[in-house]
Design goal:
The protein contains 6 helices and 7 strands, in the order βαβαβαβαβαββα. By secondary structure, it is an alpha/beta fold. α4 links the parallel β4 and β5. α1 crosses α6 and α5 packs across α6. The structure holds 5-O-phosphono-beta-D-ribofuranosylamine. The site of 5-O-phosphono-beta-D-ribofuranosylamine (GRF) has 12 residues, from α1 and β5.
Length: 189
């Protein structure tokens, strides 16, 4: 299965996928200053930067789609990609784009999920891997892992455990999706 990853920032989840045996053919990054660009070099993975700032969604998504098709990508994983995916990509990659989000969806959607859960005072939050649709942090859930908030947690210690949980389940969820897609394509023959 040929997989691309989209990222806007640090890219630690992509590194963890690779360390856990998920082959990534291509990384698409929308932020020219993101650390993932350096990580991609170190991992020897092709990384294409397609800036999205002040650009029309349809315009940059067409470029992304061209890159995906050029590399025969069959599955896209979003790992800290801070943009909604629009119809240009969704129509071509229906049920083939998944995302990791640092809360137990449908609670605490949005860009500040870890701090929002911590500040709300929930005793349990967690991480979710899900298919995406046109809404923010929506779509069918593939896998979740709860993370407790302890009395002596600070935002930093809680955040660290959230990331550990992400690293634990993301590769398992991606492998599950690959298996299901492979089974579907065998069933088609
Ligand atoms: C992760 O917490 C992920 O759940 C969220 O963005 C963060 C990305 O972290 N969508 P990294 O760039 O993979 O280190």
């Amino acid at each position: 299965m040929r997989i691309a990853a989209f990222a806007s920032g640090n890219g630690s989840n992509i590194s963890q996928l690779v360390l856990n045996g998920v082959a990534i053919e291509l990384i698409i990054c929308n932020n020219p200053n993101a650390y993932i660009i350096e990580r991609a070099k170190q991992m020897n993975i092709k990384c294409i930067v397609i800036p999205t700032k002040n650009q029309e969604q349809e315009t940059y998504e067409r470029l992304m789609l061209e890159a995906l098709q050029l590399h025969n990508i069959e599955l896209v994983v979003l790992a800290g990609y801070m943009k909604l995916i629009g119809a240009t990509l969704l129509d071509e990659y229906q049920d083939r784009i998944i995302n990791i989000h640092p809360s137990l969806l449908p609670s605490f959607k949005g860009a500040h999920a870890i701090a929002d859960a911590f500040n709300f005072g929930v005793r349990v939050s967690g991480v979710t891997v899900h298919y995406i649709d046109s809404e923010l942090d929506s779509g069918t859930i593939i896998m979740q892992k709860p993370v407790a908030i302890c009395d002596d947690d600070t935002l930093e210690t809680f955040e660290m455990r959230i990331h550990e949980a992400e690293y634990e389940i993301f590769h398992l969820a991606v492998k599950k999706v690959i298996k299901e897609l492979n089974e579907k394509s065998i069933g088609k023959c």
